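re: that complex we talked abt at group meeting.

here r the seqs, copy pasted straight from the sheet so there may be weird spacing, ignore it
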Amino acid sequence: MADFSVRVEGLWRKFATTARGALKYGMIDSARRIVGMKKDSEHLRPNEFWALRDVSFELGRGEAMGIMGVNGSGKTTLLRILNGAYSPDRGKVTMRGRVGSLIAAGAGFSPMLSGRENVQINGLLLGLTPNEIRARFDEIVDFAGLDKFIDMPVRNYSSGMTVRLGFAIAVAATPDILLVDEVLAVGDIAFQKRCYDRMLAIRNQGTTVIFVSHSIGAVWAVCDSGLFLDKGISSGKISAEDAGRAYDLQNFRNSTKHTATTVLSAEENLAALPKEYGGHEGGSGDVIVEQFRLCDARTGEPRKEFDFGEDIGLAMEVLVVHRIDHAIFRHSIDAVHYKFICNLDSSYSEGMGLQNLEPGRYIVRTIVRRQRFRPGAYSINLAVCQKNVGVHLYFRANAGQFVVRPPTDRFLYDSDSLAIVDFESHFSLDRTESREGPGSRILNVAAS
Amino acid sequence: MTHITVYTPNNRAAGLTAIRFVREIYTYRHLVWSLFARDFRAQFKQNLLGYAWAILTPLVGVFSFIFMNYAGILNPGPLKVPYPVYAFVGTSLWSFLTSTVAVMGNGLKSQSDLIMRTNIPKIALAASSLASIGYGVVINLLMIGVMLVIFRMPIGWGTLTFLPLVLPMILLGVGIGLATSVVAIIVKDAVSIVTQALGILMFFTPVVYVADNIKGRLLYKLMMDNPLTYLVDVPRSILFSQKTEYWPQYLCVTLLSVVVLLMGAKIFEIVQDLVAERL
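got the structure back, here u go
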């Protein structure tokens, strides 16, 4: 691409993990520079790690790219290198035109000074001349919706007002390249919509946007391409949808691994159980589930991840201590935010029915057919019951976790919503009135 | 023409540091001025004594010496001018060095927010502290003028020669301060180390006493070998008597100050991109 706007080639960046190391290496690197050597950036020294490893991409004018990744993946480091705060350790960044940054809007605001004075200073910080600031001042105040408050000290502004003003100045500067870090999720809905509209407008004017966000919805709305970072390793330039999927999947994996989440769900389960159960595993002692695993529905191979819509296999090895009449095996499933979203019960499901069990060992295999869990992380609770007995003979909360991967044939972005199941549905559209009807007027009122 | 920005591990711009810095400061002159005005107003808006602080600080600084002199503890020897004026001019000149080093040294640290979140050249941020240094110098010089009037000292065209003669002291301070400011971000106590060292150096410089009246031979020799002696003594002699025998030394030290300034700027430039991550 001859007409690139941002070009990043083989970018590497490392950091020290300790403050003492940062001091030592900072002094060494400075000393090397002063005597005319280059900084030591080829290898990792003790207590250093790579925050970015070999990141490359190229953007043309008017393109927008969303950078996604979990905390600590290197997003902010990348943005700071693009903004010139950090120097790369290897590789090269080339940017064409004026770079504006919206990294924490309102950076550089002085609380003591009025909004008007801050507009002037922040405009200068973004590279505007005093004349340009004067020419755009009304536009900025109007966009931020602050006309009455513009002469008030900024420290008396609400956080929303501060960010609105910061955003208004940054977009009024019409940079050639705009770096945005997590700032759109502020202000009321009407203001957020104005921000999105403005982002689209400046893109149409040719501004290249690089957008760091945790919100897949926001990235999807603003960007056409994406970059997914995982511990400093970049996916390269991919579609915004693919970056969103990769980010979602990693989040799901983390939420099954992350002890905080599982402990929480186990404790929440406890709260939902009657007190006499007294723990997240227990029962009468008549029966014990010795082993439980999730597996491939066809081969029986242990698995933790399943595609959207794919059959899920479950297997539990059961030791029956005393004879049980009319035994029922039950799995109940939790989503991250909801408990007991469904039960799978051997009493009414196909295949087994009520069973009388003599003491001994058994394997119970279950296949969940054509499941419609939305992409996400889920956990499974186990129970063995008896039809005529009102308590669980055995129960175990959070016995296993699994992840449903985002589908590749469609983009179900629901990390912003809390939806957990998907139903096949069909939409159709008919126009019932040809002019602007009363319905649209009501909507306008609601939005203003 | 579109501006192209390139970041590489070891950015090296061609040409002279000084020219590049002057150009960058000129490009961002409005910002430099606004940042200075902002800090200036923010500093004084909430103080009871407000702008009076600018005058009070140097006065209080010299008061202890005047008091010791009055009590007979500090005897500078025979003097042709009233001691308060002598001491005030001396401490003023000395403070041009120390306060410049301190303000420049902390200059980058205090702008850390802007370093992380904007792409303003760091020299422009450092230059905004230069404005406040200039302001302090002007206040000091005005007060020297006031003191000359109060103590009925002769004022002539020769007195005005004093003004450009204080510049080398400030240039030296800027040079040391620039180098200190980048190092201070990596080594947090660099500014303290440098200002403490200067505090000790003051005893080997005739700031509040007269070099010729020193009894100890070793101390006298150290003082005459100390380049700072000439930066204090020559302007002061010119102010009081319009003559000095140390012109050659003064010119040499002036040259040295310019070299230190250029070296400070060079160090600032080559280390500046290593500092952001330590903020």
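couple things i noticed - Chain A has a mean pLDDT of 84. Chain A is about 30% helix and 30% strand.
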